[in-house]
Design a protein that fits this description.
Elements (H helix, E strand, L loop, with lengths): L26 E4 L4 E4 L5 E2 L15 E2 H5 L8 E8 L6 E2 L7 E3 L6 E3 L3 E6 L3 E2 L6 H13 L6 H9 L4 E34 L2 E29 L6 H5 L10 E2 L9 E2 L6 H24 L3 E30 L2 E8 L5 E3 L5 H25 L1
Parallel strand pairs: 10-15, 11-14
Antiparallel strand pairs: 1-2, 2-3, 4-15, 5-6, 5-9, 7-8, 10-13, 11-12, 11-15, 15-16, 16-17
Length: 373
């Protein structure tokens, strides 16, 4: 676990409610317009710092300073969250909500169950897709799953609105230099005599001539992305990629108005350990390219890593969790591109019908061939 600085002088909990200056109702962030919009009176407000369309650089934080609890107090915040007893998601709710369902698994939860002390987000990728568009993308995706139960499809089409969730991620930058030892393999061929069925024949057999080699490779890693949540299966969130991180905006709570945000449950050091695995795989690929030849063997790698920096960022996901016949089905939609992933439900009746139809077709083909003989 990463120690965090004393919060006695830290910034107060973020407030994601912004009253309309015209009627007093709450603004919400409108993905289509990119502004704060009041659904009560139609008033709009531009988010500070987004008037200029030019991309804004987001400063990185020092990884070692964070591990040593030396980040400035301004980089730490405390938010009130509810922890789901089923999937352990830590989700922010409005202060006036006292009971709700977990958006990740549809389990009933009691809100405001504790404070989440964490490193403040540095960047946010705002929603660009509205809830109706996300729901259409999800139902279209379900419609293409022929074996999905019709009841679930109908339930999803008629179900409640999807939840807009900002999911936490880490990004890491690192400058690496790796020294390696290995072997370069060159393929050559020898002609050999083999005996098959009592007959001799000549065949060419591939051989590899190995030569020891050493070398160095260097690579700068920029924005290695690591999911900082354990609430959703990684194969769901990985399948939502790619994310256009070049469109990241400096964090502003206004982007969260009308949405929920999940607190990170993967600590910074755990996130970097996963990032290292990804870096090492890419470094190994670089080494194989540097070795050259037809085949490569890597015996040892010594990687020096310097200048490690990171960001805590929030990425937009539309989420639906449906309970159907006692089972929870979860669907996630990339809030920028509309890419969909989720549970792949199967209808036993449809599968049996497909097997029966296949058997009938096979039988008909077999009967037809038998009649022709």
């Amino acid at each position: 676990m990463t120690d965090l600085p004393d919060l006695s002088n830290a910034t107060p909990p973020a407030d994601h409610r912004f009253p309309c200056d015209n009627c007093g109702a709450d603004f919400r962030f409108d993905p289509a317009a990119g502004t704060l919009t009041c659904d009560h009176c139609g008033n709009t407000s531009t988010i500070e710092g987004t008037r200029d369309a030019a991309p804004t650089a987001i400063n990185e934080l020092d990884y070692r300073a964070a591990l040593n609890a030396n980040l400035p107090d301004t980089e730490i915040e405390e938010t009130r969250v509810s922890k789901c007893p089923n999937c352990a998601a830590q989700v922010e709710f409005d202060a006036n909500i006292h009971a709700a369902e977990c958006p990740f698994c549809a389990t009933p939860v009691v809100t405001d169950t504790g404070a989440h002390r964490h490193i403040k987000p540095r960047g946010v990728l705002p929603f660009a897709m509205s809830e109706p568009d996300a729901r259409k993308a999800m139902t279209d995706w379900l419609g293409r799953l022929w074996f999905a139960p019709n009841g679930l499809k109908d339930y999803a089409r008629k179900g409640r609105t999807m939840q807009g969730i900002y999911v936490p991620y880490w990004t890491f930058d690192a400058d690496t230099r790796s020294a390696y030892a290995g072997e370069r393999g060159t393929v050559y061929y020898e002609t050999q005599t083999v005996v098959r069925d009592g007959k001799r024949s000549q065949v060419r057999v591939a051989k590899v001539r190995w030569q020891r080699t050493r070398g160095k490779v260097a690579r700068f890693f920029d924005d290695v992305l690591v999911l900082a949540s354990t609430s959703l299966p990684k194969h769901f969130t990985d399948a939502l990629e790619p994310w256009d991180l070049s469109a990241l905006q400096p964090y502003a709570p206004e982007f969260l108005a009308g949405f929920r945000a999940e607190g990170y449950s993967v600590e910074l050091d755990q996130g970097f350990a996963e990032a290292r695995v990804r870096m090492d795989n890419i470094i190994a690929r670089d080494i194989r390219f540097d070795i050259g030849g037809d085949r490569q063997r890597i015996h040892s790698v010594d990687t020096k890593i310097g200048e490690v920096t990171f960001k805590h960022i929030l990425l937009p996901v539309w989420l639906a969790a449906y309970k159907y016949r006692g089972k929870t089905y979860r669907f996630v939609v990339n809030g920028r591109t509309g890419r969909v992933q989720g549970e792949r439900p199967y209808s036993t009746g449809k599968i049996l019908l497909a097997v029966l139809v296949g058997a009938l077709i096979a039988g008909a083909i077999g009967f037809s061939m038998a009649m022709q003989q």
